[in-house]
């Protein structure tokens, strides 16, 4: 796995989940080798268990804090974590020396595995749900599936625990796909909306990264794609293409007709399951389900196993998750919704009972026009807004809904107090922010967990 780096000076850049796993693997391969670790986080704020492990290691060179990139030119190889943009000026200078290497767990993974063993799932929204559906169905069918990537274990940890019969289900972010040259054997592109533009620099660069999921495919490979995004596929692509969509005009893939999900291959249509008995709600989830079904049909999984998972699968945390009914108000946590399109889908799914909507967070400069138009057509009466995007959101909303009640907040505690005071009985309060969480919250999980905590604290008093 790391043999070619035996005589190289190695730096692990980023100490998130992947970076920590890279450290453990490198140390197991090279017990006596000096290894550099670099992260913007100060040593005192590092994960306690990692700090404990590092304290025992006398061969570690630390580059931590604000100047963590200052000495990267002392190294031959950088194993970069996904969240660190490759466009950083220090990394661009590092790359100018052709003898130096910037790599990642994803690149090393594909260099050490037959791609025929890999199913890759990407898209702006729906990756985790689709990946989980595929993984659980394959496991149910007796296959030795390993879940890796964003929702699973790091790629190289998965590779280390694999056997010759393992199949990898890989949730792939745009960060992991960026600059990747090898594509999975079966690739899924669920959708593509403006997101992570602060990392990629432009929508074009973001789309380019996402398209790497199929860009390296050939005749024997398979691309599964949402029919609304077929224009992203170049005519030169040689893969076998399966399509999914809500309309029934699909020639090869999955579609919905008369309340059933169908799979079609070589003109043969097959009823898979009624849409009203699957456990997940909403059209977004129906599309995720269809993508997963296509993978399972290609791999010859029996419909019995597919149906069992689709009937029993529980929504992942913070993804239109029903928290419960408290003081006659039903609360839904959709903290994962960081773009307007996802929030619109959540409103569509829950319908006219949504009376209070919690929006806002980190401002990536997204366009909220379509969301404000949707709110104007809805029965939503109250908007609760977090900084910093909250100000731009309400400015857009007021153009179409000048009389709507709105509240600016700086804490979830305040937001939930307002929700309880202003939401009617038998109505819904929905957290679906249409913005990332950074700022007040660590991430979308922290935001969702805080939402749940504040609701339950007020009902237990």
Question: Which architecture name of the largest domain does CATH use?
Answer: 3-Layer(aba) Sandwich
Helical residue percent band: 25-40%
Beta-strand residue percentage: 15-25%
What is the third-level CATH name, the topology of the largest domain? UDP-N-acetylmuramoyl-L-alanine:D-glutamate ligase
What's the shape? globular
Radius of gyration: 23 Å
| Major sheet summary line | 9 strands, mixed
Short structural description:
The chain is 35% helix and 22% strand. It has helices at 17-29, 48-55, 89-95, 105-111, 127-140, 155-160, 174-177, 197-200, 203-215, 283-298, 303-312, 340-350, 369-377, 389-400, 412-422, 444-459; strands at 10-13, 35-39, 60-64, 77-80, 101-103, 118-122, 145-149, 167-171, 186-189, 222-226, 240-244, 253-257, 260-265, 268-274, 321-326, 329-333, 354-360, 382-386, 405-408, 427-431. The longest helix is centred in the middle third of the chain and has 16 residues, at 283-298.
């Amino acid at each position: 796995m790391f043999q070619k780096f035996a005589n190289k000076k190695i730096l692990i850049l980023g100490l998130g989940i992947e970076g920590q796993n890279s450290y453990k693997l490198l140390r197991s391969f090279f017990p006596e080798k000096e290894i550099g670790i670099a992260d913007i986080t100060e040593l005192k704020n590092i994960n306690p268990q990692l700090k404990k492990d590092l304290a025992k290691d006398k061969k570690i060179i630390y580059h931590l804090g604000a100047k963590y990139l200052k000495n990267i030119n002392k190294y031959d190889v950088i194993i970069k974590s996904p969240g660190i943009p490759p466009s950083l000026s220090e990394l661009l200078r590092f790359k100018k020396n052709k003898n130096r290497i910037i790599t990642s767990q994803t690149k090393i993974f594909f260099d050490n595995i037959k791609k025929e063993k890999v199913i890759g799932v990407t898209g702006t929204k729906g990756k985790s749900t689709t990946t989980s559906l595929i993984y659980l169905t394959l496991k149910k069918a007796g296959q030795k599936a390993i879940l890796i990537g964003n929702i699973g274990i790091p790629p190289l940890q998965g590779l280390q625990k694999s056997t010759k019969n393992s199949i990898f289900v890989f949730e792939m972010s745009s960060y992991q796909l960026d600059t990747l040259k090898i594509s999975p054997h079966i690739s899924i592109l669920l959708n593509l909306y403006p997101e992570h533009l602060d990392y990629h620099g432009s929508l074009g660069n973001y789309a380019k990264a996402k398209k790497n999921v199929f860009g390296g495919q050939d005749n024997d490979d398979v691309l599964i794609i949402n029919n609304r995004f077929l224009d992203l596929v170049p005519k030169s692509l040689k893969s076998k293409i399966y399509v999914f969509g809500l309309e029934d005009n699909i020639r090869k893939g999955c579609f919905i007709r008369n309340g059933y999900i169908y799979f079609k291959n070589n003109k043969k249509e097959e009823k898979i399951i009624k849409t009203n008995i699957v456990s997940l709600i909403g059209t977004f989830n129906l599309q995720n389900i269809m993508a997963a079904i296509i993978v399972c049909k290609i791999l010859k999984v029996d419909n019995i196993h597919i149906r069992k998972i689709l009937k029993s699968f529980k929504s992942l945390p913070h993804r239109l998750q029903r928290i419960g009914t408290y003081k006659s108000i039903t609360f839904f946590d959709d903290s994962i919704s960081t773009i307007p399109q996802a929030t619109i889908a959540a409103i569509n799914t829950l319908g006219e009972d949504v009376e209070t909507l919690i929006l806002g967070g980190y401002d990536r400069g997204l366009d909220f026009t379509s969301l404000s138009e949707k709110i104007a057509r809805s029965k939503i009466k109250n908007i609760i807004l977090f900084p910093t995007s909250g100000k731009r959101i309400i400015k857009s909303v007021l153009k179409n809904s000048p009389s709507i009640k709105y509240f600016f907040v700086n804490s979830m505690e305040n937001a939930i107090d307002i929700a309880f005071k202003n939401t009617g009985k038998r109505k819904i309060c929905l957290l679906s922010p249409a913005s990332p969480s950074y700022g007040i919250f660590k991430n979308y999980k922290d935001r969702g967990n805080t939402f749940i905590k504040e609701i339950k604290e007020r009902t237990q008093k």
